[in-house]
Amino acid sequence: MTTTVTDEQIQALAATAKPYSLAILRWGPERTMDGADAIELEHQRRMVSLRAEGVIAVLCPVASDDVAGVAIMTVPAEKAEEIMTGDPCVRAGMMRCEVHPCHGFPGDTLPA
Question: Taking a C-beta distance cutoff of 8 angstroms, is the pair 68, 88 a contact?
C-alpha cells in the first residue's frame, strides 16, 4: 500500500455508508437438469431487469463450478430474499441463494 489514509478520512467515508443486501448464488444439484438452458435464460432476463429497475446495483456473474454469481441489491435483506426465492433457477433447484445485509459507499463503481 502506498496511499496513506487518516483516521478522519476513514470516519468521513464510514459516515456515508448505506445499507444494501449481498445475494450470493451458488450452483445447485439440478444445474444440468433437462430444460436448464431455458430456465437459466429466464433467470438472466430477470436479473438484468432487476438491474435496469435499480433493485440490483451491481450484478456479477461468476465463472465457477460453485458460485454462479453475486448481486448487490438496494433493498433490505428480507426483501432481497423474497425476490431471490422467486428466481427461476432457485425455484428449479439449479441455484441456491444466500442473502446477507451489508453496507456500501454511494458512488463506488466498477472500473470501465
Answer: no
User: Residues 6 or more apart from 30 whose CB is under 8 A from it?
Assistant: 36, 92, 93, 94
Structure letter (DSSP) for residue 34:
T
pLDDT at 107: 87
Express the helix, strand and coil content of the chain in percent, nearest 5 each.
35, 30, 35
**Can you tell me the distance from the alpha carbon of 88 to that of 97, in angstroms, rounded to the nearest whole number?**
12
Q: What is the pLDDT of residues 47-56, one digit of tens each?
A: 999 999 999 9
Write out the E strands in the chain: 18-27, 56-61, 67-73, 95-104
Q: Please give the Cα distance from 21 to 10 (Å, whole number).
A: 22
Nearest CA to 90 out of 20, 21, 27, 23 is that of 27
Calculate the CA dihedral of residues 80, 81, 87, 89 and round it to 10 degrees. Answer: 130
Contact criterion met (CB below 8 Å) for 108 and 93: no
Backbone angles phi, psi at 61, to 5 degrees: -65, 150
